[in-house]
Design goal:
Helices cover 16% and strands 33% of the residues. The chain is of the alpha+beta class. It starts with a helix and ends with a strand.
Length: 231
């Protein structure tokens, strides 16, 4: 073998070793490159770095399916009873002050559906909305047209005043539970003339990429770093 051939072989071997040491995904194990949605479809479990997004826990779980559906769960699993009464606020055990603090925060253990999943340039992005916690409650509501804006609808009357503890009155004279009135005026629901659904005021974006030949997923969410492993 000539000296020139030996040098070429050594250079090629060095290049292959360098590629193998790169943590970010290129070709990846089992053909996982991070370029398609199916590369991310799995159960992921990990944590938010140096920050707890729900009280008492930094745990972050992502369930993602090949069709782009899935969920994000923060903290430990917890069951929340669905709303059953459209005429009172939700959840039933919270007062106005609690809702004021919690309506824009994530609830521990609740499965928030992922939305608008996109994979581009070997990065995955999706959004999650805190208001999806109120989905069952919003869907029970009957839209009410605004007194001051034609063809604008809310889940309760506007121009509210509180007449007694827990009781409010709309501009049209309708009596309404004050917690319900507060939720409606906080836009946790988005209504048309025919139906209500969760609003999008509490939307948070996830932006991440695969590492370690597809075994880990790292990204940012709510201003903090998220580190996840496949399960």
């Amino acid at each position: 073998m000539t000296i020139r051939a030996t040098i070429i072989l050594l250079a090629a071997a060095t290049g292959l070793q360098a590629c193998g040491q790169d943590g970010n995904v290129d070709i990846g194990k089992n053909g996982i490159s991070g370029a398609s949605l199916t590369d991310y479809a799995d159960q992921w479990d990990g944590y938010t770095e140096a920050r707890e997004l729900v009280a008492g826990s930094d745990r972050f779980r992502l369930r993602l399916n090949g069709d782009g559906t899935g969920s994000v769960t923060l903290g430990e699993s917890q069951v929340y009873a669905p709303a059953t009464d459209p005429n009172v606020g939700y959840p039933l055990n919270e007062d106005q002050m609690s809702v004021l603090v919690l309506k824009d925060q994530f609830r521990p253990g609740f499965e928030y559906p992922v939305k608008d999943v996109k994979v581009e340039s070997k990065r995955i992005r999706f959004s999650v909305s805190t208001t999806d916690f109120y989905k069952t409650w919003c869907e029970l509501q009957t839209p009410v047209e605004s007194l001051s804006q034609k063809d604008v609808f809310f889940c309760g009357p506007d121009s509210l005043t509180q007449t007694s503890p827990g009781v409010c009155v709309g501009g049209d004279g309708t009596r309404v539970d004050c917690l319900k009135a507060f939720l409606c005026s906080s836009f946790v629901c988005q209504c048309t003339a025919t139906a209500c659904k969760p609003g999008d005021a509490g939307t948070v974006l996830f932006d991440g990429a695969l590492y370690e030949q597809g075994a880990s997923l790292q990204g940012t969410f709510y201003g903090t770093t998220v580190r996840l492993e496949r399960k």
